[in-house]
Amino acid sequence: MAAEPTITRLRETEAIEFPWGHLNWLCSGELDAGAESTFGLCTIKSGQRNPRHYHPNCEETLYVLSGVCEHTFGEGRHQLEAGEMIRIPREVVHNAINVGDEDLVCVISFSSPHREAVFVEE
Fold first, then answer.
1. Distance between CA 81 and CA 86 in Å, rounded?
2. Which residue in 21, 44, 70, 79 could disulfide with 98, CB within 3.0 to 4.6 Å?
3. Are 43 and 54 in contact (CB under 8 A)?
4. Residue 1 clears pLDDT 80, i.e. is over it
5. By three-state DSSP, how is residue 10 classified?
6. Pick from 95, 87, 47: nearest CA to 63
7. Which helix (H) or strand (E) holds 85?
8. Residues near 33 by Cβ (< 8 Å), separated by ≥ 6?
9. In angstroms, rounded to a whole number, what is the distance separating the alpha carbons of residues 57 and 111?
């Protein structure tokens, strides 16, 4: 028998607050034992950045819904705007820097239901 679909409503999730913004997780192994990926919504305040980090057990895709950011990856940098996506392979050090005047809002997805993050000192 096939597993049942799971529905999550953003308005029913609790934001995890950081000095730079917040994360709302909508799908993960912690939220749904049958999940095979992690999915969330990330907001980074204007002028802020999330810490440089990497994921040893999964790749990440980030899709910009609104705002603009400079996304660093390894030694590279690329500016992303609404409607653009970046795929970051596992173990690549990266972060997003909000270089715009409004909040950056992006969808983030990981290829593991138990995403691991390792933070790198700047």
1. 11
2. 44
3. no
4. no
5. helix
6. 87
7. strand 85-88
8. none
9. 8
